[in-house]
Amino acid sequence: MESRYRAAEAAQFVETYGPRWGEDLALRVYTSRLLGQDPDLVLHGGGNTSVKTRVTELVGDTTEVLYVKGSGWDLGAIEPDGFPACRLAQLRRLCELPSMTDEQMVSLLRSHMLEPSAPTPSVEALLHAYLPFKYIDHTHADAVLAIVDQPGSNQLVREVFGDRVLFIPYVMPGFALAKKVADLWRALTRAGREPNVMILDKHGIFTWGETAMESYERMIANVTRAERWIEEATALSQRTISSPSPDTCARLAPMIRGALARASGERWICSFRMTPQMVSFCDRGDLEEITQIGPATPDHVLRTKPKPLLLPPLSPDDPQKTKATLDAAIAAYAEQYKDYFRRCSAQRPGERRELDPWPRVLLIEGLGAFTAGKTRKDAEITADIYEHTTGVIEQAKANGGYEPASELDIFDVEYWSLEQAKLKKSGGAGKPLDRHVALVTGAASGIGFATARALLAAGAHVTLTDRDEEALERAAQPLVEAHGDRVFLLPCDVTSKDDVRMTIRKATLRFGGLDVVVSNAGAAFEGPIHGEQGDSALRASLEVNLLGHQNVARFASDVLIQQGSGGALLFNASKSAFNQGPDFGPYAIPKAALVALTRQYAVDLAPYGIRSNAVNADRIRTGIFGGGMLEARARARGVGVDEYFRANLLRRETTAADVAQAFVYLATAEATTGCVITVDGGNAAAFPR
Question: Which position has the higher pLDDT, 625 or 3?
Fold first, then answer.
């Protein structure tokens, strides 16, 4: 591991943040980001850092404060606002109290903050306050965990880090840990042995310094010592692995996601992790033994649960057997989790609210890990954490054995009173399509884009597809910026079966399955229906405006059926399906057939709980009217362009956003199928018959 500290970068942070926050905090932000951006040191909100400095309060008093990472902030992207300032003298007095509950600690920490609206200080704030150094860094470095997660970790730590290491037997983070460190620190310093690094058993590493660079580079140097020791002491066997088939994973994903939904009554956003490290780990002969011991550090239990679910080899070619295997495995996992809760609760006083018993990590031989969360971000964080866990497990196992924190220690963190308090505060109404996965075709503009935007606003994860990849990327950029990895972009020509098949597979693999499919892509064709020109226009229109929808529905319904948790096929039909316009037959006829297709899918897929509905829109200002078609349609109706858009009973122009809201409604209408909703401002001639 090499230091990434650069004096020029540090100076830039001082220039950016120093005028308002001071040089000390500016440099604290810089080195905190260096730590947080290295996943071998810190993962997704882990670790914490601090700096002690002096500030001038509003009334003019100069106060010594501790700036410490705030709860919920990620070191990799932390800003000065992410470091609440606490009055240092009061925090040090708290360290001298004989006892304190977690709730009391949090309350007292907040009471000594300079800014009441700032984030709650890290639970390690008292420990940072006690240690007599200006800058302090704490990480959960993989290499350190691979050493402390072994039997005899006390001796190993001294062997690796030398006589000046302060080794802390495992203590739960918070006040108890701060007290333990204070007691051991005093004993060492009285003996004239001031430590130069601190290792927390089953937890991580602390370093410090009088400058941000000194503390950071001590962290890098000590983690490097751990890495070198592991490399010299450990002989990991190289296993030959075969790359898993993305196609197989894409076909299995909805089956696994559906099984989780059936068991839990909730939808999940899921992800396959098929890296060489994960696949190799899942092919170990001792997988059942080493994965059921516990996480690399108790902190990870909040993301991964205490243990992963191990699954036997699965085949998408035998869906009934696969579904039965999954249902049985998930049910057994849930029972084991409930036993764990009862067993550990009996050994710990107090009342607790049992968390859900569903796995977050599912390991599959030959394929890797399938992870689940409320969002894709959650699923990916879980995958990242468990992939790093596999490296820690393998390094520890190849040396003295893997021995993480005990089951009760893991339980204590999972059922920490502070975490339970968060549960009591949560539970408010979410968005209607939270934890749903949607796909929209023709999403680069018009109704498709508006629908994708509305689905995202309703909470869904959305794959946007369009034949014009560049236009799709340009149009979707604001959505990506606003919604991050809930947005997925794929090029797709709906007239190509192979294109549609691959698009559905990629979208399924991205989020684990599908719930809502909006088949929107289409094109306008005009002219008389008779004659050679009408025949060719009709055939071309049928390919896009009927068979293109069939391609999407066919492959999407395969996923929905295998998932087994219902879903919705939604089609963008047209007012023309019920009320044809002059010289618009090549467009109207396929749209009329599309309504019939919608109803046929409603009949055929009802036994699977899959709904099929359509929206009939009329006269929406979109690109479909380009090339002079708008003027031609207005002339055919004998009106001007603006009047053409307002020629309805309500005398108002209907927009793409109006149509999008109809699709969102149908996505949530659990008791509606075979329905056609009109969104046209009112057209009596086009009322559904």
Answer: 3
